[in-house]
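Hey, I'm writing a tutorial for new members on how sequence and structure tokens pair up, and I'd like a real worked example in the thread rather than a made-up one. If someone can provide the structure for the chain below, I'll link this post from the tutorial.
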Amino acid sequence: MRVVGLLLLLAFLIPPVEAARVQDARPLMGTAVELIVEADDEPRLRAAVEDAFREMQRLSQIMNRYDPSSVVSAINAAAGVRPVAIPPELAEVLAQARRVSERTAGAFDVTVGALRGWRFRPGEERVPSASEIAAQLPKVDYRKLQSDRTTAFLKEKGMKIDLGGIAKLYILEAGRRVLEARGVRRALINGGGDVVAHSEGAPWRVGVRDPRAPERLLGAVEIKNGCVATSGDYERAFVRDGNLYHHILDPRTGYPARGAHGVTLVAASAEAVNGLGPAIMVLGRAAGEKLIAAAPGVEALVVTRDGEVWMSRGLRARWVPAR
């Protein structure tokens, strides 16, 4: 068994016999996206990798609020003024966002983009004032985002969409579908704590970091076709005046979520868990247990604020403890 290091997780795999294998990593969506792929011949494999990165880059350009030419930026600029035409991929992501917002009573909300004062980039950290947050918080309300298959409209000026909590997993899954369509028989894509995988043979074993000590693993789970999605308060975070501030914001308060240290979700489909991890980071373990119980096929691990580790029964059955 060989160990393959990923940037934010670790994957252990048993390689199939006589398979060409390519590993590549590129900056995308504000993180590094790494692919590990296997097929029968290397030239076809490298072409498939290029196609997958091209598709993920295309979708990222549509949904990146920091890109002034993106469709999301156009929606934000037209807030309170007019609807904006959107492509079907963005329509699907907004529909997924709406469903998880309704399911979690707004604990997940893509309109947190209105909270513009936070800065988490190293060297540029900023905590907005209480008055600044109070002025912007009324603009956070997913119910004021209207979208259908062709248009999206933010009903009030000052509202903004931030798809950081839901677009990435959708984009990684799109890359995986490209690889599968190109005949790649085993593929694993890791992007900033979210992993999607496909295998016609041996499963992938994906490690889960301990949010209390991110340099070590809690354990690992095996997946053949599905995803492992992780949210935690240790990424894009800083400490100021003894307080930890991280990028997963609570839509109800405008401040970083305080419900959990970390959440890992495992499912056969990306859509089943997309946006759910940040919501549980906001709501905490008790509400998270109820959400998982109501989601067939979704398993979870939650590290609570007091350091307790809770696992759903299904995840415990497939859990491989760290040695």
